Amino acid sequence: xxxxxxxxxxxxxxxxxxxxxxxxxxxxxxxxxxxxxxxxxxxxxxxxxxxxxxxxxxxxxxxxxxxxxxxxxxxxxxxxxxxxxxxxxxxxxxxxxxxxxxxxxxxxxxxxxxxxxxxxxxxxxxxxxxxxxxxxxxxxxxxxxxxxx
Length: 149
What we know:
Elements (H helix, E strand, L loop, with lengths): L5 H5 L5 H19 L6 H14 L1 H9 L3 H11 L1 H6 L3 H6 L12 H20 L6 H12 L5
Helix pairs in contact: 2-5, 3-9
């Protein structure tokens, strides 16, 4: 896709892991720009699932190559804190558990959020991406905000 021969391409990177890190960092930056600031959790999740749908082919390749940890680490480091820290106060009060100081202190919460997202992704994937991103976002937001389906 870079329209370069393999040797020229890899001169820019020390390893294949560096290529993957570069790709994911770039994708996370693009995704962060799509997350609406001071929005609802559902709207932010909708942006996340829309991005997921657009990138589904590449994400499935990562999963098939057993590189899920690269993707989940990139999400955890670059997106989850942005996604959950810029939601409206009304949602924030209901968000469970809503950490008072997010950065670095609540890895268990971030990991549970990543785990939920990855579970949604896998179910969506094996269902041939039949549901709309908005429906998945509503379902996941309901879980985290204690609202019935």
